[in-house]
Write a structure and sequence with these properties.
This protein has 315 residues and is of the alpha+beta class. 26% of the residues lie in helices and 36% in strands.
Length: 315
């Protein structure tokens, strides 16, 4: 092949590349007609990142209020119980990084199509009760990478980036699960004047020479979820009677005590941490770090779990 022919082929390939590049740009501009060049959605909150101390999440007439108190985030609607760090960190990442991506046509039809009316979630960020940012969040697209959004004070619709993992129920925003009992490490279970004991981790339990390999009550007690939380003062006002007490003793010397309260098919649980007479050092450290999550708190249980914890016999 001579030099002229090579040069001619090279020119044709180059020309086609240019044409394809323009086509690609044209398609992109058609799909995303107005770009914002990375403007932050929560710009005021970003500028006051150390000052944001309250987040309101409004959905279907319900409100969840996350508040910064004494160096921790708590849920106002759960009597100030501690916030779920997983969801909170994800939300904070969105606040810090979410940007306007592409402007959409504003119309009443699009507000409905993009779930920016009755199915929307409104997010409000505050600094000492001063409103910093407020947006209305709609439908997610492309595997939750983008969301449709309307600024609260503008007749505009935008596509913004961010995952926005926003549970609709306020109880999902508290620390969940409340308790994860280390089942294999349970040495003794005491309730209803019965004691089950085992002599090695993971082995069957024994009571009066009988062997129990599967203890149903332990299965119901191992993972505690809560539908609501009350502090001790507010729980006392309900005057719900205590109906059962279950004690779990861990091999290392940790004692976990469940006190069950019930009235009108409603079930509440108080969890107390203590030690045996000779606990491992790690047990004292665990109680020191975690007692704040249990002491003087009462957890409303899902009805099925509460019923099983109250009525399931130990043996």
């Amino acid at each position: 092949m001579n030099a002229d022919k090579i040069l001619k082929i090279t020119f044709i390939v180059f020309a086609l590349s240019v044409v394809l590049a323009f086509v690609a740009v044209g398609v992109t501009m058609f799909r995303y007609p107005t770009q914002s060049h990375g403007k932050l959605v929560f710009e005021k909150a970003y500028e006051n990142v150390d000052g944001v101390d309250k987040i309101e999440i409004l959905s279907h007439g319900n409100i969840t209020t996350l508040m910064a108190q004494n160096g921790r985030w708590v849920v106002k609607e759960a009597d100030g119980y501690f916030a779920n760090i997983k969801y909170l960190n994800s939300l904070m990442t969105d606040f810090n990084k979410s940007t306007y991506y592409a402007k959409q046509e504003f119309s009443e039809e699009n507000l409905d199509n993009y779930d920016l009316t009755k199915n929307a979630v409104t997010l409000k960020l505050y600094d000492d009760d001063k409103l910093l940012d407020e947006v209305i969040l709609g439908k997610a697209v492309q595997n939750n990478i983008f969301h449709f959004m309307k600024p609260a004070d503008e007749n505009e619709i935008w596509l913004i980036d961010g995952t926005y993992n926003l549970p609709r129920e306020f109880y999902s925003w508290i620390v969940q699960p409340v308790m994860e009992l280390p089942v294999r490490m349970v040495e003794k279970i005491k309730t209803d004047d019965i004691v089950l004991q085992r002599y090695e981790e993971g082995m069957p339990f024994v009571h009066k020479m009988q062997i129990y390999e599967n203890v149903a009550l332990l299965n119901y007690a191992k993972t505690i979820l809560a539908e609501n939380v009350l502090n001790a003062d507010n729980f006392a006002k309900l005057k719900i009677p205590q109906v059962r007490e279950i004690t779990f003793i861990i091999f290392q010397g940790l004692v976990i005590n469940y006190k069950l309260y019930s009235q009108n098919d409603e079930y509440w649980l108080n969890i107390n941490l203590s030690t045996t007479s000779l606990p491992k050092t790690m047990v004292n450290d665990y109680i020191k770090d975690n007692n704040i999550f249990f002491e003087n708190w009462y957890f409303k249980l899902p009805q099925d779990q509460g019923r099983e914890l109250m009525f399931t016999p130990l043996i």
